[in-house]
Amino acid sequence: MKKRLIALLACAALLFALCAGCASDKPSDNSAPIDNSAPVEQNSDTPNQQPDEGNAYVQGVTETEIVIGNTATTAGAFASVGIPFNAGLNAALKAYNDAGGFHGRSVRLINYNDDFDAANGMTYTQKLVEDDKVFALVGHFGTPTVGATLDYIKEKGVPMVYAATGISPLYQEGATGNDAVVFSVQPIYNAEGRVLLARALASTENGVGLGGTKIGVIATTADDGEGLKAGVERQAEEVSVEIVYQDVDPSATEYSAAVNVLKNAGCDVVIICANQGPVATVLASMRDANYNAKVITSYVCASAPWLGQRVAEGSVTAERPVYSTAWLDAGTEEGMADYMEFAAVQMAWEAEEGIPADQSYALNSYAMAGYVAAKTFIHGLDQLDAMGLELTWENYVKAMENAPVNIPMGGSVDYAGGDRLGVVDLALNTVTLEPDADGNYALTTVSPIMSLDDVMAQVK
Known about the structure:
By secondary structure, this protein is α/β, with parallel strands linked by helices. Helix content is 40%, strand content 15%.
C-alpha cells in the first residue's frame, strides 16, 4: 500500500507537470449543485464597494455561503484529470462545511469545463468573476488558462489559490498590491531551479545533496527550461561556485556538443533544466560520451517507469545516478497520516455522492491535488479567524501571508512578505538500478522534504 501510494504521489507531480500545457456553457455535473438564477449577494456586513476602490472589495459572500470557482476540464481528453481534481476539492469542502464552515457559511464550488483551451479559459474565468461573482478562483487549471488569465486576475484583484501549472509568470518575490492576490502551490519552475542548485551543492551527508564542486547546466530554450535555469541563476547569487551553462534546442535529437562541453570542463554534477523528452536525450548523449557525473532534474521526471526505462537503456547507472525532486511524499509517518485523513474525507464525500467504493478516488493522484487546493484555500479562512478579520479580498491576502500553509502529504508554502514562489520544500528521489521480480523499477527517497533554507545550510 505504502509503495503504491508513494508512486502515485510521484505520479501526481509528474502528471500535473505534463498537464501544465493543462465546453459546455453550463457548470459541470461534477461540482456541487448550482443555481445560477440566484444572485450572489454581498456580505451584509461589508460595504458594497467596487473593485476599483481597492482590495477591500468582496463578492461571492452571503450570510450562508462563500462561492468559489474554477474551469478545470471535465469532458474530453482531459476529463480524467479535471473530474478527480474537482472530486478531491469538493471532498475537502464537504468536510469543512460539515464542521461548520466559515462562521456558518458553506463554501460552494462552481466549475466550467474549458476543454483545456486558453480562449475558453478566459471566457469562463470572466464569467466566474463578473457574472457568478465568485469570491476566489481555487484550483485554477493548466498552463493555457492560467497563462491567458493571469493579468486579468491581477487587474480584477480576485484571489487565485493553487494554479495547476508551474509557469514562470507565477513566480514573484515581494509581490504587492493586486500582484499579491495570486497564491501558487505546485512548484514553479523558477523556484524549483533554486532548489536544484541547492541540492546539487549540498553535502552528501544523510543524502541531503550531491556534493557538487563544479556544476554543469543544460537548459532547453523552452518555457520550462528557461524558468528552471532562471531559478539556478537566482540561487547562484547566494553561493560561490563555478557553473557552466549550455542552452539547447528542446527539439534536438542529440546533445553531444553540450554534453562534451560539460565533460571537458570537469563538471561533477549536471543539472538538466527540461521536461522528460530532452532529459532522456541528454542522458543518452551522456551515455554515448561516456560522461559519468551525478545528474539532478525536475520533479516532472519523478516517474519510476520512465526513469526505469532510462536504466534499461544504460543512460542511468551507478556511475551516472539521476535524482529528481518531489513535492508530495507519503513515505514518512506524517505524510501517511495526512494521506489517511485525505482518504477518509474523500470516501465520505463519495458515499454522499453515490460513487461506488470500487470507483473511489482515494488513490487518485489528481484527487489528492484537488484536496491540496481546497485545503490551501481553507487555510486562508482559518487565518482570517485567527486574526479576527472580516472576509474581504484585502484581508484574505493578509491572512494567507500570516502563517505558512502546511501542505497535506507535503511541506509548506510561506507567502509572507509577498513571496509567491510555490512549494520550495522538496524531497530528493532516485530510481532503483535493478527491477523487482515483476520487472518494475521504483523510486526511493534519498532525502525527505526539506526547506530551501535547510538545504542551503548544508552547502559548504
